[in-house]
Every structure is written in C-alpha cells, then in structure tokens.
Amino acid sequence: MKAEPGDSGTTRLSSRRGLIKGAALGVALPSAAALLGPVLATPARAATPAASATASATAALPDFAPVPAASFGPAVNSDGYFVGQIKGNLYWVTDSYYQAMFLTTREGVVVVDAPPTIGNNLLRAIQEVTRSLGRPSRVTHMIYSHNHADHIGGAGLFGGRVERIAHVQTRELLRRAADPNRPLPTTTFKNNLVVEVGGERLELAYHGPNHSPDNIFIYAPAYNTLMLVDVIFPGWAPFKNLAESQDIPGWIGAHETAHAYPWTTLVGGHLGRLGIRADLDVQRDYVGDLQNSVRKTLTTMDPTPFFEKYGATGNGWAIFKTYLDAAAQQAAAPVISAYLGKLAAADVFTLENASAMINSMRIDYDVLGPFGNHA
C-alpha cells in the first residue's frame, strides 16, 4: 500500500439531475390524474413549433416490453433519492439509476462511490442517517470502485479532508483524466487492502480487469454484502455492449469470482434495487445463453449472400458489417424471447450485447466464423 497527497478543492457539479429526478419520480409514483381523478377541461392552447417537434420526436421513439414489477426498487423521496439500511451500520443510496454505499462508524463515514446523478443527495442521505443514529456525519474515507465518471464524478463534493482509496490503476487513469470532479486517490493498493475505521471493516480486492482495467470488489464481511459495480444488474439485462466492458472475458469471469464470495446482498451500482444471489444466477444464465447462441450463429450462418452482394465491388467492410449485423440479430432473438418477463429490458440491449459478444468470441475466443483459417 502506498499513500500520496490528493487534491483539496471542492468542485461544483453541473448536471441533468432535475430531469433524472423527474423521471425517477415518474417511475415510482402514480400520475396526478390517477390520484385526483377527472378534472375540469381547460381551454386548448395552440401548440408551439418547438412543442410540436418534441411531441413528434417522442411519438417516433420505439416501444419496449413492460418492466416486471420485481425489477423496480423502492420509491425515491421528493428530493429524488432513497436511502436504506442494508444491515447494521451499512447503508445504500439510489436515485433509481445509480447507487452508492456508505458505512457509519464511531469515527466518521466511509463512502463507496459518488455518482453525480445522486450528487448532493448523497450528502443529504448521510446526514439523515447519522443524525438519527447520533453518529459523526463527516466523511473521512471514500472508496472508488473504478475510475469512471458516472460512478465517482460526485467525489469532488466531499472536499479535501478525505482519505480517498482506490486501485493503483485507478490513480493512473485519473491522473490522465485530470478531472477536478474526480480527485486523485491518496491511498492505493495492488491486490488487497483492508479498510478499518471506527470498529468497522471493508475488504477491497482486485481480481483483474473486467468492466474496466481497475474495477474492484468491495466486501463488508460483517454484513455479508458485496459491492461490485457494472457487472451484475439485479433484475435487469446487462447494459449496452455487455456493460461497455473493456475486457469481456474478464467481465464474464467476474461473475464466477462474485459467486465465490459468501454474500447475501449485492450492491451493483446501477438501477433501483439491491441484489440477491438468485439475481447473479439469472444473469449468469443470460450471459451463458447469449454466448452459446453467438457461437452457434457464427458456426452455422451462411455468409454467401454477403460475399455475393458486396464481394464484386471490393467493399470488404460492407461484407463484415452486414454479416456481423445479421449475426447479432440472429443470436439475440432466442435470448430476448427467453428472458422477456424474467429480466427487465431484455428487448432493449440484448441486440447490442450480442454484437459485443460476437466481437469478443471472434477476437478473444477464436470463434471466427467465415473469417477463420482459409482452406
């Protein structure tokens, strides 16, 4: 472990939080019309060109399958957040899109991640909990799960009197980013680090690259809780392109590493609810089924039409594009059908997930389809 000086400035965040808050409240709460019933008609007003254009653009957007009720988390409050106890002194905060975790201790608060969409609501949640417990509210330690701005872009709100802890690669990536909203860590580690503050304990571990080169596992043994961000999405299909992962074999392997931990509660970093072990099982099945469907597609789909259409013109990229796009469509179809109603948004990102899996199978697993060794 090494310690290095960090930044001390407090940074103001600009965001689209009002829009996100409104959307989250819209998911969690019934409409005013549903609550109030019929209302008196008001005189119609002529639509402005801008309003007409917005309505037209909205009408053109695609429809998707309903989200299963079990995929939703608790309703957010009027400020746009929910804070809840996981167990003992461990808490989580969500705005229905992102999640953070914090641990109250007799010496201060340890925070894991600071998503900018939650922003100052994370401070409000900490104040709310610590005030009710009569514990110190000052954040003394902040842990970065990884370097991505969507998860730690609110870290600058906590000022300079905070020990910031991250993997060594996180520090190098943040040094390159030079983002004042993501102050450099003051303490880094390579493989494992135990963080003990005020009688509480978190175990940090690096098991290799997965979603990002620096993504770590954060385990609270006293509370049987694992925080692993951008790998498992409880109740939902994985985000686009297999969570935009930079190392897809490592991301797939992270599911097995997570399975080996003795947790009962998972903080996944996204969306509105916590996870249980059954959520990991379902996502492992989804990933495995997608991988099998991709493998079958790459080994059986006839490439002849694509070569016949574009080969004579010498447009090799057109061959690749149309073949790979068609392969993604074919591979995604049975997976979407199997998981609709089981995972929310199975029809939203599975096509892109199939495309990412195809590229990984070709590049990482040597399943090259018609672009393999020439006879």
TrEMBL record:
Matches recorded under Pfam families: Lactamase_B
- CDD domains xref list: metallo-hydrolase-like_MBL-fold
- Superkingdom of this entry's organism? Bacteria
| Location of the Metallo-beta-lactamase domain | 97-270
Check the record and name the SUPFAM superfamilies matching this protein: Metallo-hydrolase/oxidoreductase
Q: What is this protein called?
A: Glyoxylase, beta-lactamase superfamily II
> Which source organism?
Actinacidiphila guanduensis
